[in-house]
């Protein structure tokens, strides 16, 4: 705070990128020599963040994947990490900057186990209001548990993909809440779809109610 007051808003904004000014707290965790919470300028290079700020991967192991913005954000592969850590660049790379929680996974990590542990958390945390979240996380947990136990079948991969696709804010009346919940955050277009579904379902309900009352009145 004192630095911003002394340096001024413009100085602070110029530390970051033109569209994502200032600094950000990044929590570096996982397989790193120097994990911790670091305040870095927005747009800091992710590769440098891992190998310079975080001290690289212990025991000279190689990188398998990176979670760039908290456990609900899509992982990046080693060839995708030479990017600037700002909202636009991470989105362009196919993920999200999210909370700034960077998790580094070395080549000893079992990705299935990692996915299972993550989904167990979201299944436990689901408040149960929206069906895609409540049922989807449970089905994903069941499928991944079986998969991880060695009893997976090829079709499971398609099923996991299908479930995940259908949890992206679709088929739920509670679009507003889903937008707020990171794992199932909907895109602008699916939000629009959800609004349309919601309006259509309300209109259907009103039509059914008016038919019901017409019948009631006619039978009086
Ligand atoms: S998406 Fe959010 S509101 Fe809906 S069930 Fe999951 S945690 Fe609850």
For the termini, the CA-CA separation is: 73 Å
Evaluate the radius of gyration.
23 Å
Name the poorly predicted regions: 171-198
CATH secondary-structure class of the largest domain: Alpha Beta
Number of helices: 9
For the biggest β-sheet, the strand order reads 2-1-6-4
N-to-C SSE series?
Answer: HHEEEHEEHEHHHHH
Specify the overall morphology.
Answer: globular
Q: Report the strand count.
A: 6
Structural class: alpha+beta
State the domain count: 2
Identify the CATH architecture of the largest domain: Roll
- Average residue pLDDT: 82
CATH topology assignment of the largest domain: Ubiquitin-like (UB roll)
Structure notes:
This protein has 220 residues and is an alpha+beta fold. The protein has 9 helices and 6 strands, in the order ααβββαββαβααααα. The protein folds into 2 domains: 2-109, Ubiquitin-like (UB roll), CATH 3.10.20; 112-200, Up-down Bundle (de novo design (two linked rop proteins)), CATH 1.20.1440. Helix 6 runs antiparallel to helix 7. The termini are far apart. Iron/sulfur cluster (SF4) binds next to helix 6 and helix 8.
Please describe the topology of this protein.
Layout: H1 2-7, H2 9-13, E1 23-30, E2 36-41, E3 44-45, H3 46-53, E4 63-67, E5 84-85, H4 87-92, E6 101-106, H5 111-125, H6 131-151, H7 154-166, H8 175-180, H9 188-218
Parallel strand pairs: 1-6
Antiparallel strand pairs: 1-2, 3-5, 4-6
């Amino acid at each position: 705070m004192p630095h911003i007051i002394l340096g001024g808003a413009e100085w602070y904004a110029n530390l970051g990128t033109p569209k994502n000014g200032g600094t950000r707290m990044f929590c570096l965790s996982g397989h790193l020599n120097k994990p911790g919470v670091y305040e870095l300028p927005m747009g800091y290079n992710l590769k440098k963040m891992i190998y310079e700020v975080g001290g690289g991967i212990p025991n000279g192991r190689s990188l398998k994947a990176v979670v760039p913005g908290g456990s609900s954000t899509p992982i990046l592969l080693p060839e995708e990490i030479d990017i600037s850590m700002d909202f636009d660049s991470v989105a362009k790379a196919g993920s999200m900057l999210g909370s700034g929680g960077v998790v580094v996974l070395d080549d000893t990590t079992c990705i299935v186990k990692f996915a299972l542990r993550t989904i167990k958390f979201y299944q436990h945390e689901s408040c149960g209001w929206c069906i895609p979240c409540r049922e989807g996380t449970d089905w994903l947990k069941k499928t991944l548990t079986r998969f991880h136990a060695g009893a997976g079948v090829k079709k499971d991969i398609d099923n996991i993909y299908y479930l995940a696709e259908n949890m992206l804010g679709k088929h739920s009346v509670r679009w507003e809440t889903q937008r707020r919940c990171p794992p199932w955050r909907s895109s602008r277009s699916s939000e629009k779809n959800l609004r349309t579904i919601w309006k259509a379902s309300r209109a259907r309900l009103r039509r059914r109610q008016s038919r019901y009352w017409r019948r009631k009145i006619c039978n009086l």
